UniProtKB/TrEMBL annotation:
Pathway noted in the entry: Carbohydrate degradation; pentose phosphate pathway; D-ribose 5-phosphate from D-ribulose 5-phosphate (non-oxidative stage): step 1/1
One Pfam family recorded for the sequence: Rib_5-P_isom_A
Name of the protein described by the UniProt record: Ribose-5-phosphate isomerase A
Residues annotated as binding substrate: T33, G34, S35, T36, D89, G90, A91, D92, K102, G103, G104, G105, K129
Family to which this protein belongs: Belongs to the ribose 5-phosphate isomerase family.
UniProt enzyme class: isomerase
Protein keywords: Isomerase
GO molecular function ontology, one term from the record: ribose-5-phosphate isomerase activity
Subunit structure: Homodimer.
Job of this protein: Catalyzes the reversible conversion of ribose-5-phosphate to ribulose 5-phosphate.
């Protein structure tokens, strides 16, 4: 791609570029999924090529695996890695406690497994993803195809029992067919508007037979790198209670901006 990036893409790029600086030689790194994570993978690929960075990447989707291979990152499976030093991923929403909604890209299951098997999870996001209360973004819930409509009915009953504000659920589609995840499952999107008790909802959803996992990431993220369209980045760490501010340059001349697929 050539030409001017949109402010949102610039924000995603600077967040990804700043997070890439946290990756050290020899690390095993979980690679997230989505357009922001794709910037990260490109930045890491560039560091592998130009600085000789040696890392092992564990991708969270077939899409990310393809991109990582394309840019020259060594890929291993989670079971080969066993445990990761760091996972860097995007998010659909994050709140002040760094709890997240993820799964807009349909990869929440692998993303949650990989992030949980990491010493540290760093989220990269543009400022627009920050919310006071999670829930404006529809909550993705991965369900197995067998009896998915029954599972959907149980999910809706549970939302009523929990007195959650919005209760509409929709099956995610891919054109005319149901969307299928890398694990062969479907996704229900829960239009809740506002999630009062995200921790409780996350636990309760996973008790419903047929539900594989939900997109609430509670107490998993350690750090969020927030990108702004003017190149500003904030690194907020929930464990340290710190906020660092930085400013990055766009270097549209380098290889990162070629072949944008995501
Ligand atoms: O959870 C995800 C994929 O399952 C993504 O991280 C999330 O949807 C954010 O995507 P993007 O960076 O494209 O805004």
């Amino acid at each position: 791609m050539t030409g001017e990036l949109s402010p949102i893409d610039k924000a995603k790029f600077v967040a990804a570029k700043r997070a890439a600086e946290m990756v050290e030689d020899g690390m095993r790194v979980g690679l997230g999924t989505g357009s922001t994570a794709a910037w990260l993978v490109r930045c890491l690929g560039e560091m592998v090529r130009s600085e000789g960075l040696r890392i092992k990447g564990v991708p969270t989707s077939t899409r990310t695996a393809e991109l990582a291979r394309e840019v020259g990152i060594d890929i291993i499976s989670l079971d080969e890695a066993k445990w990761l030093d760091l996972t860097i991923d995007g998010a659909d929403e994050f709140d002040g406690d760094l709890n997240l909604i993820k799964g807009g890209g349909g990869a929440l299951l692998q993303e949650k497994i990989v992030a949980t098997a990491s010493d540290r999870m760093v989220v990269i996001a543009d400022k627009a993803k920050e919310v006071e209360t999670l829930g404006a973004f529809p909550l993705p819930v991965e369900v197995i195809p067998f009896g998915w409509q029954t599972t959907q009915a149980l999910v809706e009953e549970t939302l009523v029992a929990m007195n959650v504000m919005g209760r509409k659920t929709t099956l995610r589609m891919n054109g005319d067919a149901a969307f299928v995840t890398d694990e062969g499952n479907h996704i229900l999107d829960l239009h809740l508007n506002r999630i009062g008790n995200a921790r409780q909802l996350a636990l309760v959803m996973n008790q419903i037979p047929g539900v594989v996992e939900n997109g609430l990431f509670i107490d998993i993220c350690d750090t969020v790198v927030v990108g702004y369209g003017d190149g500003k980045v904030e690194v907020r760490d929930i464990n340290e209670g710190t906020i660092e501010t930085d400013r990055l340059e766009f270097m549209e001349s380098d290889n990162l901006f070629a072949d944008l697929g995501d």
